[in-house]
Design brief:
The protein is α/β, with parallel strands linked by helices. It contains twelve helices and eleven strands. The longest helix has 22 residues.
Length: 327
């Protein structure tokens, strides 16, 4: 009897071990922009957080929404950081993508040389450098000023650029006086110009309007926007175990990132050299970071999508995504 029990336990162990081997894949590719939403992905790779499910884990940087779309359409990533409107747009166009979570709820503000400008209305008639035309942050800016009774095209001089880094460089080189930036570009620009931390002489640049605050005031809601999160793509959608492990480790890495700004900054520049370690560390205090599952964030997402659908349906693919979008 004792031998039978030993044999049964041995068989059970063998079956479980075999199951674990099946779950482990040769390679996982995580992709994202230089912005804060990607930083937990880098920590996951640096700490080997997914080594139990993959032989190798890589990070691929996407530099524009067009590159992001290319990665999803060509199967260039398994998990990818996405602006939430782009995720909905791709899903509505038939791309095999599901939103896992929303983790960035506030990342946008205007950086300016004029410390007297405190609201978006103060910038009427001004030139503003704007990255990613017709994508975040452009669409957030447009929806806010429209709600305020302004015309984004007529009341402002928007100078469109290909990335937040380009807009940041325009500010640093004094080719523009105002730019709408996503963290950590804002904090990096302040560091590079000696504008942060505060110094004895007047800073060159100042933090202007917080777009999340303006959004809350304009739409009479909480001052947060479901701006970005993580999506799973293609065949990986079916691998429930790896998705589960990814979700667990992303949440842990984001918590570490928030609690260790100095170490986080130093880690990020190893993978994305265009960043600045001190700027990244500074930025963490200015980003609303909170991992919320896609299904739990659905109410906030649909409020956001409804506004976009009313004014520019193309930004989300013409309609609200159905239940299949939310993992």
């Amino acid at each position: 009897m004792f031998k039978k029990i030993i044999l049964a336990l041995a068989l059970l162990f063998t079956i479980n071990a075999g199951a674990d081997e099946v779950k482990k894949v040769e390679k996982l590719i995580l992709s994202g922009p230089m912005a804060s939403v990607s930083h937990p992905l880098i920590h996951m790779i640096e700490t080997g957080a997914l080594n139990d499910v993959a032989e190798k884990v890589e990070f691929k940087l996407w530099k524009s929404p067009d590159e992001l779309r290319a990665y999803t359409l060509r199967g260039g990533a398994d998990f990818i950081a996405v602006p939430t409107n782009v995720g909905a747009n791709l899903y509505n166009k038939g791309v095999d993508i599901k939103l896992l979570n929303v983790s960035v709820w506030g990342i946008l503000n205007i950086l300016t040389r004029d410390k007297t400008k405190k609201t978006l209305k103060d910038f009427v008639g001004c030139e503003i450098a704007m990255p990613f035309r017709a994508d975040m942050p452009d669409i957030v800016f447009e929806e806010i000023v429209k709600k305020q009774g302004l015309d984004p095209k007529k009341d402002f001089k928007l100078r469109y650029l290909s990335s937040p880094i380009d807009a940041m460089q325009m500010l640093i080189l004094r080719r523009v006086d105002h730019a709408l930036l996503a963290e950590p570009a804002t904090s990096i620009a302040l560091r590079k110009t000696g504008s942060f931390p505060l110094k004895i002489i007047a800073p060159d640049l100042y933090r202007g309007p917080d777009l999340q605050k303006e959004w809350g005031e304009a739409f009479k809601v909480e001052s947060k926007i479901p701006e970005a999160g993580i999506a799973v793509i293609g065949d990986m959608i079916k691998n429930e175990y790896i998705v589960k492990r990814f979700n667990e480790e992303y949440a842990k890495s984001l918590a570490w990132y928030k609690a260790n700004p100095k170490e986080a900054g130093e880690m990020m520049v190893k993978t994305i050299p265009m960043l600045d370690a001190e700027g990244v560390a500074d930025s963490i205090a200015h980003v609303q970071l909170d991992v919320v599952s896609a299904k739990d964030a659905k109410k906030d997402l649909e409020f956001f999508y409804d506004i976009l659908k009313s004014n520019n349906p193309k930004t989300i693919g013409g309609k609200l995504p159905d239940e299949g979008f939310y993992y």
